[in-house]
Amino acid sequence: MDYHPKKLLTIVCEAVLEAPLTRDIQRLGAQGYTVIDARGGGHYGVKRAAWSFDRNIRVEVICDAEVADAIATHVAACYAPDYGLVLYVGDVGVMRPGLF
User: Where are the annotated coiled coils located (predicted)?
Assistant: First the structure.
């Protein structure tokens, strides 16, 4: 099967960012995104998501490299200084490139 190269941009952040972040993601050129509740532990301790203010989400975007870079640059400038988040990008191959 032939796969088409894209980027998978993943942002793990505070749940309070879901609405503005997903608006920005679409405004910056992504065709869509996936939001998943996230729990875990790390540098800042354990996130158990027991309270709504303590929740994290994972936002995944499959897109072209230019769109991934635009979103990452925006997130770094607008959200990273004031919110806890992790952002990473990797290469993926997709079956239906027109969806992304």
Answer: none
Q: Where are the domains of the chain?
A: 4-99
> How confident is the model over 32-87, as pLDDT tens digits?
999 999 887 766 655 554 555 578 999 999 999 999 999 999 999 999 999 989 99
Across 50-69, b (16+ Cβ under 10 Å) vs e yields: eeeeebbbbbebbbbeebbe
CATH 3.30.70.120 corresponds to the domain 4-99: yes
* Global pTM value: 0.87
- Per-residue tokens: 58: 């994972």
Instruction: Find out whether 48 and 88 touch, Cβ atoms under 8 Å.
Output: no
Q: CA distances (Å), 24 to each of 7, 51, 73, in order?
A: 17, 26, 11
